[in-house]
Amino acid sequence: MVGIILVNYKDYANKYLATCRDSLRRQTDQNFKVYLVDNAASLESQAYLKSAYPEAIILSRSDGNYSAANNLGMRQAISDGCDYLVAANMDTEFDSAWLASLLAALEKNPAAGIAQSLILLHPKIRAGRPDLINSTGNRLHFLFFGFTADYNRSLEEVSLVGYPEISGYASGCSLIIRREVFEAISGYTEEFYMYHDDLELSLKVRLLGFKIILAPESIVYHRYEFDRSVLMLYFMERNRRLCFWSFYPSKYLIFLALPFFVMSLGMGLMSIFSGWFKIWLKAAASVFTPKFWRLRKRLRREYQNLGGARRELISQDFVGRIEFQEIANPILEYLVNPVFNFYWQLLKKIFKSSPKS
User: Fold this and answer.
1) Where are the domains of the chain?
2) Do residues 121 and 224 make contact, with C-beta atoms less than 8 angstroms apart?
3) What's the pLDDT score for residue 325?
């Protein structure tokens, strides 16, 4: 049995649920339960969800915490006897073999703890083209910027054979995780609230020693539209900082603190001209609060217990170039990326050859 978790926020379901629901009803594998988490519940949203998707199990929350909503849905699914758990965005349309192929990826690969679907851009937002890629997995920069791999490339340009390993992290748009793995890592870290939640979830799975793989036959069409909301900007930047200071071994932080502060200064200057300086300042200031450092201390302990020795091995898969495909920035492309990439490649060689701490 598979538990599929969809999260609604306010009127999100009014826009996207019908198409998503219909594609779930067309799945070739119907051995699943859908858990609809109403994450800013009201009488109106509850009534709509029950009428629009009567066979789904409706769960209610009030504060909009996306990580906590996924935990609620997945823990209920486990309580109901589900062996596999799927996190999926509601602004999607699933191919009829989406779930069967996603499930097969884990059943055929016992060393994998998470499998991600092949996420394509929905034809309705890409001039009718059904072959443009949204994500074949996500890459992770050494300063903890995350970005999608193969974005906006056509399927003809990319070779996807078997179940390729994802060296970064799985996209929360459509992923499946084993029940026992989810329980072993204690699920999502709810203090992340939203954004970087899938990144941190994936890192914990990798710390346990499991691989993350792509399921190329599990196809989902995503109505992806780049949006820089206030909440998005704040949580992406705050959580990036939290990951950076929590994940690395201490000896890495000695060498990475300088590029981290240089990048932070650059982003602060950019935010002045981009109109989001107050948001950047709020995220930067969060690092200097007792709450941040208490959480950092807890996360470092959790990562160490999951498999702290693997942090150095995982770090070897981080990249030195930032590829924000929706933002064309010549300073990033021709100055920051070359310098930071050179520095990171040099550090990786040093760390790889140094004695284990």
Assistant:
1) 2-222, 230-353
2) yes
3) 61
